[in-house]
Structure formats: C-alpha cells, structure tokens
Amino acid sequence: MDDERELAEFARRWSEAELRGDVAALDELLTDDFTAVGPQGFVLDKKQWIDRYASGALIHDAFTWEEVTVRRHGRAAVAVGVQGQQSVYDGRDADGHFRVTQMIVADGAQWKLAAVHLSPTGGRTPLND
C-alpha cells in the first residue's frame, strides 16, 4: 500500500475511533508522547485524551473529518482538515466545527498521530446545516 492510501486509511481509522470513543483503537493510533491543544488552548497528553472516552465524559453522536489536505515531510505528514462533531462532554453540549492540524508520524510500518491542534471556526458544523 502506498503512503497516500495508508494515510487515507489512517484518517478513516482515527475518525471512526473518535466517533465510537474506541479507547483501544485510540491507544494504538496515538504516539506515546501525543499532545493535543484544544480549541480553547488547553493541553492534553495521550492519557488525558483517551480518558475523556474511558470515563464516559465525551460522547459523539456524529463526527466528521473533511476537506483534508495532507503534505508529506519524510517520515511525517501534516494533515489539515475540518472536524465537525455533535457531542456531549460531561453532560454539556459540545457540538463544534473546528479547523484541525494533525502531525502524523511513521512508527515502524504504522502511521500514528503525534499531535493535534483544534481551532474553532465559529461556523456551523456540516452535520447540522
């Protein structure tokens, strides 16, 4: 499988794992030193990111990953896309529409997500248009 198809398959697996809150899949898809910067500037490590699902605090009714462009840089890639979600976090509405930057790295024969940064677009999600 070539890199372009592998990265497309990685994106599909990641967005499915996020939608389902699949802790085991996310544990496999994220690097051990994964870092996320949330839409309001907070920072989460891998354990904190996954614990949102493990605790049941974050539940997605819908999750999309669209308008994605990927640029390869050696054994790494930068993906920029639009994430839409219909979600509940800790009992509160967490619907959103975000411009997302992902740093994806080759870890042996697998691609893994090393970092993600979310910025709110202020727009409606494509899920509720």
UniProtKB/TrEMBL annotation:
<dbReference type="InterPro" id="IPR027843">
    <property type="entry name" value="DUF4440"/>
</dbReference>
<feature type="domain" description="DUF4440">
    <location>
        <begin position="9"/>
        <end position="113"/>
    </location>
</feature>
<dbReference type="Pfam" id="PF14534">
    <property type="entry name" value="DUF4440"/>
</dbReference>
<dbReference type="InterPro" id="IPR032710">
    <property type="entry name" value="NTF2-like_dom_sf"/>
</dbReference>
<protein>
    <submittedName>
        <fullName>Nuclear transport factor 2 family protein</fullName>
    </submittedName>
</protein>
